[in-house]
Amino acid sequence: MITFGMPALIELNTLEEHCALCASLGLKFIEINMSFPLFQAERLDSEELERLSSKYGIFFTIHVDEAFDPANVNDRIARVYLDNILETISLAVKAGIPTLNMHLLRGIYVTLPHKRVFIYGENEDLYLEKMRRFRDLAEEAIGDSPVRICVENTDGYQEPFLLHALDLLLESPVFGLTVDIGHDHAIKGQDLPVILEREPRLSHMHMHDAVGTNPHLALGDGQIDLEYYLNLAEKDRCRVVLETKTIEALKTSVAFLKERGRI
């Protein structure tokens, strides 16, 4: 059986409210989102996370702040991001959190008359040097714990520097892959071949339905071949976040899965 979880929801005000909802729906984990003020590393306590895990019979994963960018061209800003991820890794190791989910940012671009030019692409050596430093620091901090950092597809890997960074991170065993099926649908399936070429590293999935470029719909409310991705998740033993944005859509998604015997 697939292990299903829920995302952090803006409608809920406390971590315990999230835990109660998660348990009531028969889900197994909550993906804490560090873009929310509630879920900053300094406000999360490993003992409290362990207490709630025991009380509700669930566990946690973490979605790293979506602004996280260890390759920022300003060294002081990049250092702050590195300090933040190291603090987050420490929390994950102490609290038994298995997965940190992160994005690879494209960064700033310059719009020329005929194309966009990405600063990271024009300065790829510097960009990859900073990503290598992030990789090595993360690997050292994780050590022999089971924590893994999974890189999520967002807006496509068409820019070569993004693919080079992805493969550089995957050189380390502490990194893996997340497939976000709605993001992939929005760009007409351009990310999936990249991920399937690296399928042995796939261990996390963000599942939501979509219509065209409108994602994060309840399962069954869109156009995605959900059975394909459910089978993929089962084959690769992915943890699956039902990444809707409202309680109502989350409940609809759980009902969709129950009707098909997936939960």
Summed up:
This protein is an alpha/beta fold and 263 residues long.
Task: Provide a descriptive summary of the structure in words.
The protein has helices at residues 15-24, 46-56, 75-95, 119-122, 124-142, 160-170, 181-186, 192-196, 226-236, 247-259, and strands spanning 3-7, 29-33, 59-63, 99-103, 109-111, 116-118, 148-152, 175-180, 202-207, 209-211, 214-217, 239-242. With 263 residues, it is of the alpha/beta class. α2 crosses α3 (75-95) and α3 packs parallel to α5 (124-142). The longest helix is centred in the N-terminal third of the chain and has 21 residues, at 75-95. The chain is globular and about 50 Å long. It starts with a strand and ends with a helix. The model has no long low-confidence stretch (mean pLDDT 97).
Provide tags for this entry:
263 residues, alpha/beta, two-stranded antiparallel ribbon
Strand-pairing-aware structural class: alpha/beta
Helix share bin: 40-55%
Q: What is the CA-atom radius of gyration, in angstroms? A: 18 Å
Please work out how many helical segments DSSP would assign.
10
Biggest sheet statistics: 8 strands, parallel, barrel
The number of distinct β-strands equals 12
The neighbouring-strand order within the major sheet is: 1-2-3-4-7-8-9-12
> DSSP strand (E) fraction?
15-25%
> Which descriptor suits the 3D outline?
globular
- Regions with little confidence, pLDDT below 50 for 5+ residues: none
For the termini, the CA-CA separation is 8 Å
Overall average pLDDT: 97
Order of helices and strands: EHEHEHEEEHHEHEHHEEEHEH
